Every structure is written in C-alpha cells, then in structure tokens.
Amino acid sequence: MDDTYQTLAAPAEGIYKEKGSKFLAFAYPVRTVDDVKKHLEHLRKEYFDARHHCYAYILGPDKATYRANDDGEPSGTGGRPIHGQMLSFDITDTLIVVVRYFGGILLGASGLANAYKAAAHDALQNATIVQRTVNADYRLCFEYPLMNNVMRILKEQNISPQNQQFEMDCKIDISVRKSQAERIVAALSKLQGLTISPL
User: Fold this and answer.
1) Bridge-partner residues for 170, per DSSP?
2) Beta strand pairing status for 169-177 and 94-101?
C-alpha cells in the first residue's frame, strides 16, 4: 500500500488577468469540510464585491472526498478546471478558491475555463508541496515498571511518543506509518502487561 500523499505546506496565492477580468487564486492546506467552509466564509467577506468565488477541494490520502463549485459561472468552467489542476499536481487535503472580478468583456466558456485553470496553476506554482505519510494512531497502556522496555522499542523504531502520562498506570499515544504499523504493534505486543488500542 502506498502510504504517502502530497499536500501544501502553507497557503499560497496566484493571479491571472484576461481582458480586464482579474482572477485571484488562494490555495490552502485543509483537513476537513469545516476548514473549507471557514476559508470560503473569510474570502467571501474579504472579497464581497467580487462577481464569483469558484472553488474545488480534495480531502483524504485516498482523495475520496472532493467537490468542484462554479459559483454561478457556466457549468464546468470554474470548479472543474481548478480541480483538474489539483489532480495534475497530485495533491490532497487542499482547497483552492479563485475569486473573479469581471472586467466587462465576456470570455466565453473556453476562455473562462482557461482563466480559472491558469489562476489555480499559478497558486500551485507558488506553493510549497510537501509529502506526508498516512499514519495509524495507537494508545499504549502499561504499568510503570515496563517504562524502560516500552521506551527502548519506541526509540529503536524511531517513534516519538505523544501525550505521555506517567503514573503507576502509564499511557502513551503513538503515531506510526501505516505500512510499518503491523511490525511495530507486533514488537510492542511481546511486552507482557502492555495493551495497545487504536485511537
């Protein structure tokens, strides 16, 4: 299983001008549909006088959740070209909104599609694209005397513990690459008295 995916390291912007119309592109790293809604609300407030706010987003390492929205432009001329650029850059967990200021001259369907595509492309050209891993998260529960053994295995496997709670009953959360999860869980499972549960 391929357990890596690409996304944006930080927001990026792009611009495209055609016959007086201005297309401002905003690309954001996002994790959820709620993130998408927040960015859309913010841009609609900030650019309230713009004619259209077309957008597309893709979520999840498998790119299974996606949407393209033309926001009143002729069908397929706004959201779809933006979505197409995201696919060609092979990114996910990303939202691109292109804000259009109409310049008085109609561009026609192919002109519009090209403008939205070019603006999205410019934003992605300006973006830093990073590779992330698909991870599985677990909680380890054990009694204090096991601490050294647990920490030794985590160190050997190059895993940084998160949310550590050290008392008589200890808890540690870990995040491991999906492709390595089985091997790491097997190594930890050899410790008697340790329970591992998926988060």
Assistant:
1) 142
2) unpaired
Q: What is the pLDDT of residues 10-56, one digit of tens each?
A: 999 999 999 999 999 999 999 999 999 999 999 999 999 999 999 99
What does the alpha-carbon distance between residue 106 and residue 74 come to, in Å, rounded to a whole number?
A: 12
| 96 phi and psi angles, rounded to 5 deg | -125, 125
Q: Residue 96: left (phi > 0), alpha (psi -120 to 50), or beta? A: beta
Tell me the DSSP string of the chain: ---EEEEESS-EEEEEEETTEEEEEEEEE-SSHHHHHHHHHHHHHHTTT-SEEEEEEEESTT--EEEEE-TTSSTTSSHHHHHHHHHHTT--SEEEEEEEE--SS--HHHHHHHHHHHHHHHHHHHSPEEEEE-EEEEEEEEEGGGHHHHHHHHHHTT---EEEE-SSEEEEEEEEEHHHHHHHHHHHHTSTT-EEEE-
Q: How many of the other CB atoms lie within 10 Å of CB of 169?
A: 10
Which pairs from 39-46 meet CB under 8 Å and 24+ separation?
39/95, 39/97, 40/95, 40/97, 43/97, 43/99
